[in-house]
Structure formats: structure tokens, C-alpha cells
Amino acid sequence: MTASEGLVVALSGGVGGAKLALGLSRTLPPEDLLIVANTGDDFEHLDLSISPDIDTLMYTLSGLANQELGWGRADETWSFMETVDALGGESWFRLGDRDLAVHVERTRRLRAGDTLSAVTADFCRRLGVAARVLPMTDDRVRTRVLAEDGWIEFQEYFVHRQCRPVVRDLAFDGVEAARTHPDFLAALAEPNLRAVIVCPSNPFISVEPILALPGVRAALAACAAPIIAVSPIIGGRAVKGPTAKMMTELGLDPSAAGVAARYGDLLDGYVLDEIDAGSVAGLPVFVTHTLMKTLADRENLARIVLNAADKVGCKRP
Ligand code: FO1
């Protein structure tokens, strides 16, 4: 067993976050990796409690993820959804038969009083996920999007309306009253914290709900370990999802530099793709191939991000 080089906390949401989380999980011993999952995308649907970013992490880390879709499980069947459709139910949010079992069992446990983090830990254990996946809070936080016709739920925007609405604003309902998961805050105060990694997730929908939780920004500012982000934008385009479109609609520069500017003085280092070399100044920049197509890409980027953190080093003596 290699000696611990320190705890790494990764902030993750969406597909890009899960890819780097997988690379980190294959690079670090399990006890040295805490993956904090965004829960702002969660919602109630068909009377089920659905946690997409937790499930994308869980499936990706257990090798069960549907690589084509980027969400849900591989080897899926769709009898349930086809029947819901035939009965005139809501079928726009596709729940595969195996995936459905996660939502039904999670909902049953939550109604029985279990916390989301306890359910997540048990499901991850049962699926053989060694790294720790921790919901950012056990309380209800819901991302909402201000479109032309008013505020809509995140999944209504992202899936039902396929990110078409122009985004005027975003809100994270419940975030002020939510209790940041204590294990997350404790990890940020760990003396042997090696790094905080902001995964290549959409800053607005995947990372900022986490940063908006009580005490998180203060804890990040106080932690001695370096905070390193990986740009989710390569050459002005998001690898997947509406990041660039959202940035344009919110009046921001849809680029790696625009994301760095959005994070502001939170970051101690920034990892961006060769195509964007030279586009960011004002903080240590590490240029590499950031598009993760293969498992080797995921592991390689993880190693580069950890090396970047070690090069930046602790912020305080
Ligand atoms: N995304 C889609 O674009 N269409 C879907 O039908 C869909 C179903 C779905 C079911 C379970 C789940 O965990 C995720 C699902 N997603 C779907 C993805 C989901 O909207 C996104 O993963 C996040 O909310 C954005 O990061």
C-alpha cells in the first residue's frame, strides 16, 4: 500500500465531472479521494426522487454507465418507459428498467428516513465503488433556470426542452438553508488535504450549487491545499452540454478564459487544453490534452491535475 499522499476532494457534476472522477479513482487509493456530488439537478419525477449527478458518478465509477447516452446504465431495457408512454404518462425523462430500480429503492429509503448520503454510500458499496461519493448536502437544493417564460425546473430545461430556452438567470432554491454535508467541510479542513479539484463540469449547473452552500467558499478560501480547476470548455465549445450556450446567454465569454474569470480568485491553478494555450493569464496554467475519450485519457488527465496541484503546492506555510 503506497503511503497516503494526502486527501483529494473533487467537486463533480454531469458527465465531464464523472469522467475525471473515474480517472482520479484509478489513480488514488480509495481513502484518499472524496468526490462531492452536485445535487442541484435532483428532482421528483413520477413520484420518484431522482439524483442524476450522483447516479452518473455511481455508474461511471462502477463501470455500469451507458457510454453512448452519457447518463443511465449500459445494457438497459426500456419496458417500463414504453408502458408509461402507452398509458399516457410522462415519458420525456427516460428511465431504463435497471436504472428505475435505483430510483425506486432510493425513494423508499429516503421516505423511510435515510439520508441521501447514507443511501448513496450503501448503493456505491453494493456496486463496488471504492471511492467515496458524497452528496454536497442531504437537504433539498434545486437548480432553477429563468427562461423567457419564467422560472423552470432544471430537468425541464435540460431534458424536456433540450437546453433550447435562453437562460436569463439561475437560482439554487434552498441552498441558503441547506446544511453543507459536514464530511465535506471536514475534508476541506483536513491537515493532510492535498488538493481540491474542480472537475470539468458546467460551472453554473454543476459547480456553483456546491460553492453556494453555506461555508463552502469560506472553507475553500481557508484551506491550505491548492484548488485546481479543469476547463470544461475546449476551443470555445463545451465537450458536452449547454455550458458555452449558457455563458453566451449570461453575457460571459464562452471560453476557457471565461470560465477561469467566472471562478475568479477561487482558483490556484487551471488546466486547459492545448488549443487554448496562452488564452489565460493571472494564475498558474497547465496545458495538456483535456478531451477524455478513453479510460487512459481519464487516468492521464487525473495524473496531470494532481501534478499541477503538487506543483502549485500549499498556499500557506
Ligand atoms: N438526460 C437526457 O438528456 N434525457 C433523458 O431522458 C435523461 C434521463 C435520465 C435519467 C436518469 C439520470 O440519472 C439522468 C438522466 N439524464 C437524461 C441526464 C440528466 O438530465 C443529466 O445527467 C444531469 O441532470 C445534467 O448533468
Describe the structure.
- The chain has 12 helices and 14 strands.
- It has 317 residues and is α/β, with parallel strands linked by helices.
- The protein has one domain: CofD-like domains (Rossmann fold, 3-Layer(aba) Sandwich).
- The strands form 4 sheets. A 7-stranded parallel β-sheet has the order 5-2-1-9-10-13-14, with helices on both faces. The protein has a 3-stranded antiparallel β-sheet with strand order 7-6-8. The protein has a two-stranded antiparallel ribbon with strand order 3-4.
- Strand 6 and strand 7 form a beta hairpin.
- Helix 1 runs parallel beside helix 2 and helix 4 packs across helix 5.
- The longest helix has 18 residues.
- The radius of gyration is 19 Å and the shape is globular.
- The two termini are 29 Å apart.
- The model has no long low-confidence stretch (mean pLDDT 96).
Q: Tell me the series of helices and strands, N- to C-terminal.
A: EHEEEHHHHEEEHEHEHHEEEHHEEH
Give the beta-strand count. 14
Main pleated-sheet profile: 7 strands, parallel
Structural class: alpha/beta
CATH fold-level assignment: Rossmann fold
In this entry the ligands are: ligand FO1
Broad CATH class: Alpha Beta
The domain tally reads 1
CATH superfamily: CofD-like domains
Mean pLDDT: 96
Number of helices: 12
Core attributes:
single chain, 317 residues, alpha/beta, Rossmann fold, seven-stranded parallel beta sheet, 38% helix, 19% strand, binds ligand FO1
